[in-house]
User: Fold this.
Amino acid sequence: MFKKINEAYSILSDEQKKNEYDNRNNNPFSQFGFDMGGGNPFDMFANMFGGRGQQRKAPDKLMDIQVGAADSFLGKKIEVNFSRKINCDPCGGQGGERDTCSTCGGSGRIMQRVGNHFMQNIIQTNCNSCAGRGFHFRTTCSHCNGEGRLNENQKIEMNLPVGVSDGQLVKAQSMGDFSNGMFGDMIFKINLVPQDGFEKVAGDLVFNSFLSINDLNSEEIKIPHPHGELKIKMPQTVDTSVPLKVKGKGYPNENGDLYRDWE
Assistant:
């Protein structure tokens, strides 16, 4: 079993051998000495170490952004500034001149047999010699200091979903960091904050500005609203312990109401 796993791993880490394996039509394992009766060693290897044919993808990047309650209500277009990692062109993303690690042969991983005389397991771990990179730097790039990536400032315009809520996630495709030869996605996490006296409570829009005595003595009052000022006829009976409610004027996607406190 240990021998089969090592042979499979040697093929996966060698591009030429891997291509030869992929192009074989008749009994492809015979070239590499595998016993078909014992099953496909690549399937066995994939089950143990995460798969061979999985689609390569750069990791997503998560960023918190603040969004005002009024902007959320209107689903406005906002400008977002952020920083991301891009490929370092001077070194081609290599970080400098490299020497292949002699311990792991450039794979960055080593196979180890662990256990006692009665039970043993084969595990794959990072190569301690190269810290899992598969190489050692002969010289490092002066532009990126060996990282292979540089910081880049970006600015995008985002169309907020109407009624976007606190904690909601909005994806910007291919606007994340450069990794594995491609850009990942940027995931913006919404932090909803009060804005211009407005805040969101569930699906309701709350205006945090108290009414004055003059407002109480008027036949109608004016209430600010993201869609424009509202004129509301004063109720005949006023209970100042209960906020003034304007039905249907909250977040439209949640059938919310508008509330304004009394003084």
About this structure: The two ends are 79 Å apart (CA to CA).
